[in-house]
Design goal:
Structural class: alpha/beta
Number of strands: 15
Bound molecules: nicotinamide-adenine-dinucleotide, (1R,2R,3S,4S,5S,6S)-cyclohexane-1,2,3,4,5,6-hexol
Distance between the termini: 23 Å
Function: Involved in the oxidation of myo-inositol (MI) and D-chiro-inositol (DCI) to 2-keto-myo-inositol (2KMI or 2-inosose) and 1-keto-D-chiro-inositol (1KDCI), respectively.
Catalytic activity: myo-inositol + NAD(+) = scyllo-inosose + NADH + H(+); 1D-chiro-inositol + NAD(+) = scyllo-inosine + NADH + H(+)
Order of helices and strands: EHEHEHEHEHEHEHEEEEEEEHHHE
Number of domains: 2
Helix content: 25-40%
Largest sheet: 7 strands, mixed
Shape: globular
Mean pLDDT: 96
Subunit structure: Homotetramer.
Organism: Halalkalibacter alkaliphilus
Strand content: 15-25%
Radius of gyration: 20 Å
Low-confidence stretches: none
Pfam families: GFO_IDH_MocA, GFO_IDH_MocA_C
Strand order of the largest sheet: 12-11-7-10-9-8-15
């Protein structure tokens, strides 16, 4: 069976996903695209030589009976309406983060999905498919470091544009750690506090940079996460989990090591697109395979999208107050029981 995809939003990541479904992965085909910028949608069809219909909007694309899965890669604020319409039409959805920009919006999607009686939605938290994170999780789950006590994580981008404001350090950047860290240690978040160190001279007026988040979990694990989006030297993701019996580290992204002119050196990536390239491939292939073989996606769920939204809200509040802000989730419905893990790795 070939899974037929309709893509809403043919910008940067929309095209990346179209390219991988068309040229790298198996079992999927792009049959429809749309974008508020219709020229972008048309150019995408030409660029990847797709046999796909260009629709004027998301609702028309969702109504196409030929579309099995709706890929949502539009701007964040547009996600909720498209996801809800697709779920209500009984279609599968692969939605890039954020699932919705508010916790209430995520809950509306959760309710609509539960009404359909099966999981239809996967959120694009691709770190759960990164081999380094999967190795960290396996080590923790096997008890190799005993009970986790602390986490130290770093999320650095070389630079950000003028449109990137302080809040985006949470909703655009930290959001990846928000999803990955609770999954890694099998715990829920309890509180968050934010500290702003001295501001780098490379940050523009509307962004406070760097930022330090201290997140505490229900069992008392303390996570220190640095977001530094004008670090200049490259794209750098680090994660270290400190347990009672040992410490596990996220492996460095592999790079050739050079010995030359009295120096030992290796490169650092400059762009996020390359850091998780393999993870994106595994993520979407797993989505296709799960839909075909199990009838439901098995990756991060709408409930994970809700957890991320609630946590992000508390982080943004903490940015403003400087106080420790609580993170409080509704009770998890049995429908979402289990911990979405990639079984294929
Ligand atoms: N998982 C990841 O690592 C990752 C990486 C990058 C982006 N993202 C997420 O993916 C989404 C897209 O990001 P991007 O970098 O591709 O942005 P982008 O601006 O390059 O592309 C977004 C596209 O969506 C279109 N669009 C906006 N609203 C629309 C609507 N209502 N209907 C149809 N089209 C619409 C825009 O015209 C644009 O072409 C964002 O939510 C972003 O947070 C995730
Ligand atoms: O800070 C960036 C992250 O490092 C990337 O992984 C993307 O999510 C991008 O949208 C963010 O701006």
């Amino acid at each position: 069976m070939t899974v037929k995809f309709g893509v809403v939003g043919t910008g940067a990541i929309g095209r990346e996903h179209i390219n991988r479904i068309t040229n790298s992965l198996s079992g999927g085909k792009i049959v429809a695209v749309t974008d508020v910028n219709q020229d972008s949608a048309k150019q995408t069809v030409e660029q990847y030589q797709l046999d796909a219909v260009v629709y004027p909007n998301d609702l028309a694309l969702i109504a196409d009976e030929n579309v099995d899965v709706v890929v949502v890669t539009s701007w964040g604020p547009a996600h909720e309406a498209t996801v809800l319409a697709a779920v209500e039409a009984g279609k599968y959805v692969f939605c890039e983060k954020p699932l919705a920009t508010t916790a209430e919006g995520c809950l509306r999607i959760v309710e609509a999905e539960m009404k359909q009686g099966k999981k239809l939605v996967q959120v694009g938290f691709m770190r759960r498919y990164d081999s380094g994170y999967v190795q960290l999780k396996e080590a923790i789950d096997k008890g190799e470091i005993g009970q986790p006590l602390m986490v130290r994580a770093v999320h650095r981008n070389p630079e950000v544009g003028e449109s990137y404001v302080t809040e985006m350090a949470v909703v655009d950047t930290l959001i990846h750690e928000i999803d990955a860290l609770h999954w890694l240690v099998n715990d829920d978040y309890k509180s968050v506090q934010v500290v702003f160190p001295r501001k780098t001279k490379y940050a523009h007026d509307k962004v406070q940079d760097p930022q330090l988040f201290t997140i505490e979990t229900n069992s008392g694990i303390v996570m220190n996460v640095e977001v530094f989006v004008n670090c200049k030297y490259g794209y750098d993701i680090q994660c270290e989990v400190i347990g009672e019996d040992g410490v596990v580290y996220l492996p460095e992204f592999p790079s050739v090591v050079t010995r030359k002119n009295g120096k030992l050196s290796s490169g650092i990536l400059q762009d996020w697109k390359y850091r998780f390239m393999d993870a994106y491939d595994v993520e979407i292939q797993d989505f296709i395979d799960s839909v075909v073989k199990k009838g439901e996606p098995q990756g991060p769920t709408s409930w994970d999208g809700y957890i991320a939204a609630v946590t992000a809200d508390a982080c943004v509040k903490a940015q403003k107050t400087g106080e420790k802000e609580s993170i409080s989730l509704q009770e998890k419905p049995a429908f979402y029981s289990g911990n979405a893990v990639c079984e294929t790795l």
